[in-house]
Structure formats: structure tokens, C-alpha cells
Amino acid sequence: xxxxxxxxxxxxxxxxxxxxxxxxxxxxxxxxxxxxxxxxxxxxxxxxxxxxxxxxxxxxxxxxxxxxxxxxxxxxxxxxxxxxxxxxxxxxxxxxxxxxxxxxxxxxxxxxxxxxxxxxxxxxxxxxxxxxxxxxxxxxxxxxxxxxxxxxxxxxxxxxxxxxxxxxxxxxxxxxxxxxxxxxxxxxxxxxxxxxxxxxxxxxxxxxxxxxxxxxxxxxxxxxxxxxxxxxxxxxxxxxxxxxxxxxxxxxxxxxxxxxxxxxxxxxxxxxxxxxx
Length: 277
Fold this sequence. Notes:
Radius of gyration: 54 Å
Helix content: 40-55%
Mean pLDDT: 77
Largest sheet: 5 strands, antiparallel
Keywords: Coiled coil, Membrane, Transmembrane, Transmembrane helix
CATH architecture of the domain at 5-22 and 57-160: 2-Layer Sandwich
CATH class of the domain at 5-22 and 57-160: Alpha Beta
Strand content: 15-25%
Shape: rod-shaped
Low-confidence stretches: 17-29
InterPro entries: PAS-like_dom_sf (IPR035965)
Distance between the termini: 132 Å
Protein name: PAS sensor protein
């Protein structure tokens, strides 16, 4: 309920108390008006106007700063409208109009709104009223029954909430936009963290692979024996002198310093020299 609804309720309660005071006098004057109007039609409008002023405590009703209407719920006839109501709607003949000419909602929509208000336990209805210039305004209508013996009327106070609803809509749009922005930033942050994690894991994996390859290369390098530099060799027996100064057969020296293995055979020259003599 809007923050000002308590003030509206107090205003309505005060007016309803005033309206309940002259009930018997009102009924008597209404009957007298009908009799006099039937006898002399020229006095009809004056008598009706005088009766209306007596019924509604005219000074308070007419000069109040809120839009006020008195409506016959059976027909929708606007029985009375104060000065602010006439100025607000732009119609100076409101008492010759029906509320259906102002409320642009269909009867089905009106019933649905009444049920909605009842289900939400609120004492006002959300309607849309059309002004004389064609403008559509959102209003909250606070309606209370006024009983004149067996006649039930609706005393309605109308509050224009168009600007407030527009402001609330703008706030909701800004909040929605902020949520979208925050959601987008969060999504971007999650994606960024995910990509960063993938990059780090890939780099770590590449580093592990590189380290494994380096270990393999180091192992292979340790296993490979390469003969380098000047190697002392005997000109006659072909023995080789190692680092400690010992002389070893050629095949023994090469086997110790490489992965090479020797298999012994006889070349043709040696065959001829040693076996064919």
C-alpha cells in the first residue's frame, strides 16, 4: 500500500462520518424534491442542486484538494464531482456522465482488478482513466460504500499515480539493466578465469613434456660415448695409450669409450699372408 494511504483513509473516514449525519434529512429532502419537480419541472434542476449540496456537506466536498466522486454502482452514473475532479478530468459536466466513460478498462478487466484487490487485501483499485484531452492516466481509486437507507452509493477518492508508476518503471529498468551488466561482468569473469586456468594448465603440461624430453636427452647424452681429440696409437702393434698411460688393444679401447662391439674375422690380405704360405 502506498505511504500516503493512511492519510487517504483518514480523509475518507472523516468524510464518511459527515455523510452519515444527515441521512434522515437527506431522504426527506430527496422525496420532497421529487414531488416538487414533478409539480413544477422548471424548479427541478434548482431543487436537485440544492439537495445535492445538502447531501454531501457541499463546502467540504467541493473545496477538498483531492479528486472526489460519488457514483451509483448500479448504473455507473456520476452523481456528484467536486471542483478538483472537474478540473482534473477536464469535464465540467461530469454529473451527466457515467464512470464507464472515464474508466477505459473493460467490465471484465474491472472485475478482475476488484478480485485482485480483494486477494491482495488492499483497499484501492488500479484503474486507467481518460481525461477530456484524451490523455490516459494511471489512478488508484479508493472507494467506500455510503448507504442511504436501502440505496447504496460509492464514495470514491481518485489519486493520480502515473508519475510514480513511471518512476518505479524507470527504477526497475535501471535495476534490470544493472543486473544484466553485473551478470555479463560475472560471466566474463568466469570465462576469463576459465581461459586463464586452461592457459596455465596447458603451459604446465608443456613444461612437463619439455622437462621429460630434457631428461630423455640428458639420459641419451650420458649413454653416448664419443671419441674426441688426439689418441696416441702404436705405429707397429696399433695399441692405444689411455688417459692413465696404459696401452690397450685397439678394440678394447674403442669398446670402453663407445657403444661399438667388435666381431673378429680375417681380411683377404691377412688370409693370403698368414694362411696361404
